[in-house]
Amino acid sequence: MNIQQLKCFVEVSKTLNFTKASQNLFISQTAVSNHIKHLEETLGFQLFIRNKKNVQLTQQREIFLKSALKVLEANQECYQTIQYLHHENFGQLKIGYLKGIEHCIMIKNIQNFYQHNKHMDIQLYRDSRQEIEELLKNHKVDCVFTARVGHDPIPFEEQFDYLHIYSYPFVVAMSKNHVLSSYSSLNYFDIKNQTHVIMDTSHPDFISHDLDTLFMHLAISQDTAILAQFVEDYYAYQKYLCFLPLKDFSQQFHIYLIWHKNSQNKSLNAFLQSIKKEKE
């Protein structure tokens, strides 16, 4: 018994016609007949009753068909695995990212890379800035998407390298019932007496807020929050919140990708090349 015999058996079962089966399999009708004959000899029972007018099914054929389909499915799975292992872009890439930046350009970077590297095993880890950078230091991930506020030099250790991905201006988030919601834009002076939150990830003691919880708080209160512009993409809250440009706030929210300089992971190198190409 072999795979080709099983393929012929399944195709004849579908079409109930040896001629059509041979056409679908791109082999001669004689070859199909011979494969079925040898398969029946191996099994010790008849699968089809053939005459000049039609092909009839036997009871044994109905039972055996289920097993044959499972074998062919397993064979296809095995073939795909072999192709996967031989693929030039086979590999594994572990990416950490800062909580709350799911809707920034990071997704596009990973998506574009995966479209051309579908054989690659990409694993994602989401946590606070401190936690994901700790994962990187301990070689638990290959790279991390993280963030800083302002223009100060990034205090990375010598063994790391980094790439600036994108910078976002800040906006003021508030409830649509807020007294300032009718403004088209705001100055920092307008909100200095408001209760507000600055998501400053450059602060060493900063603990990342869960954006969903923060948005829920803003929706039911008169508080405001200064956030990176990309948070407007959290569409579920557009009905309840408004996001106003902050005109006199010069600092920006910078997204960086960080990795070990001495990394030998070819998948990481391919990922870096993909992002650099997008930035050109």
TrEMBL record:
Keyword Transcription: yes
InterPro entries noted in UniProt: LysR_HTH_N, LysR_subst-bd, WH-like_DNA-bd_sf, WH_DNA-bd_sf
An MF annotation (GO) of this entry: DNA-binding transcription factor activity
Occurrences of domain HTH lysR-type (ranges): 1-58
Source superkingdom: Bacteria
Pfam families per the UniProt record, alphabetical: HTH_1, LysR_substrate
Classification via Gene3D superfamilies: 3.40.190.290, Winged helix-like DNA-binding domain superfamily/Winged helix DNA-binding domain (1.10.10.10)
Keywords: DNA-binding, Transcription, Transcription regulation
A GO cellular-component term linked to this record: protein-DNA complex
Record-stated family: Belongs to the LysR transcriptional regulatory family.
PANTHER family xrefs: HCA OPERON TRANSCRIPTIONAL ACTIVATOR HCAR, TRANSCRIPTIONAL DUAL REGULATOR HCAR-RELATED
Protein name: HTH lysR-type domain-containing protein
Organism (species): Massilimicrobiota timonensis
Organism placement in taxonomy: Bacteria, Bacillati, Bacillota, Erysipelotrichia, Erysipelotrichales
